[in-house]
Amino acid sequence: MDLPVMPPVKPMLAKSVATIPPGMHYEAKWDGFRAIVFRDGSDIEVGSRTGKPLTRYFPELVGALRERVPRRCVLDGEIVIARNGRLDFDALTERIHPADSRVRMLAERTPASFVAFDLLALDDESLMEAPLTDRRALLDRALAASTPPVHLAPATTDLQVAERWFEQYEGAGLDGIVAKPLTLRYLPDQRAMFKIKHERTADVVVAGYRFHKSGPVVGSLLLGLYDDHGRLQHVGVSAAFPMKRRAELVEELEPLRMDDVTGHPWAAWSDESAHESARLPGAPSRWSGTKDLSWVPLRPERVVEVAYDHMENGQRFRHTARFRRWRPDRTPESCTYAQLEEPVRYDLAEILSQPGPPAPLPGHTLHPNGPPSTHDRK
């Protein structure tokens, strides 16, 4: 490759804020794999948030990108998989697999899409120092004729529209809203944007904990909810505690500690086949690798209120839940899925409908699929 912006590039990040700030550029917050796409002629490389390549895991996107994006460009966006009109993050994680045959099988069964929302380079020009408004105008032109599975992320500068998106898009599995200052240049690995996510609370059962990597203090609390059949399902963890509080939790939970897992609702956690019919802690995962997934069982008698943003497939917390307070007034049996708020369904196709092409930007010539430039050696 010979591009004005070369891999690896770590993407620009966002910091959490409570409300949508006025006077900015707004987009949906996609729930997928952040990806930087580099194209130089027939050469395509897809970099992850950490800079490591994702290319081999999404072979169907490589071909699609060759057909649908400018011959020499660097794009920032998100890889997503949709099922039944919603984003499906679990299906996305299945693609990170060492076996090429399985990756290609899943590429046909659950094909991925790429949603572009920024342009870092075009032809021979780096756009890293250009303001967001210029980068977005060029991106709109570059992808005006693109078709699925390559999409141009919807965007607006209207705060009221952004607020409506915030309420509606969750029903399609999206995370919230991202707000970007209009004059923002591209700042790799810096939290220069703003993200606004939904926050809800739930009362959950604490049924165990894992030790912290630093020693015999609590690393994370294991959380559960009862399903319609009265089974306690593992729904996630709460893990953000000051070190002093981690030590206090060990003493606080000691009276509930079980000598072994026998008789615990999650006693079968070490049996891989048991994970097929129930949500248990310590499920085998390509993400955990050799990480120690053992945990300390507790009698499921204490209830805690946690804050969360949204549920993955209605079964588990998509991200780490945030500890709010103990709830001694609640019984464990009352902590069921029924308490969770369900967002109104919204069709993902409505979000990904293509916007019309903007007016040309003076001083720039785009070659989405036209003749190769002088630097296109492939």
UniProtKB/TrEMBL annotation:
Enumerate the Pfam families for this protein: DNA_ligase_A_C, DNA_ligase_A_M
Assigned keywords, A-Z: Ligase
Molecular function GO labels: DNA ligase (ATP) activity
- InterPro entries attached here? Adenylation_LigC-like (IPR044119), ATP-dep_DNA_ligase (IPR050191), DNA_ligase_ATP-dep_C (IPR012309), DNA_ligase_ATP-dep_cent (IPR012310), DNA_ligase_ATP-dep_CS (IPR016059), NA-bd_OB-fold (IPR012340), OBF_LigC-like (IPR044117)
Zinc-finger among the record's keywords?
no
Every ATP-dependent DNA ligase family profile domain range: 105-227
Q: Which SUPFAM superfamilies match?
A: DNA ligase/mRNA capping enzyme, catalytic domain, Nucleic acid-binding proteins
Name this polypeptide is given: DNA ligase (ATP)
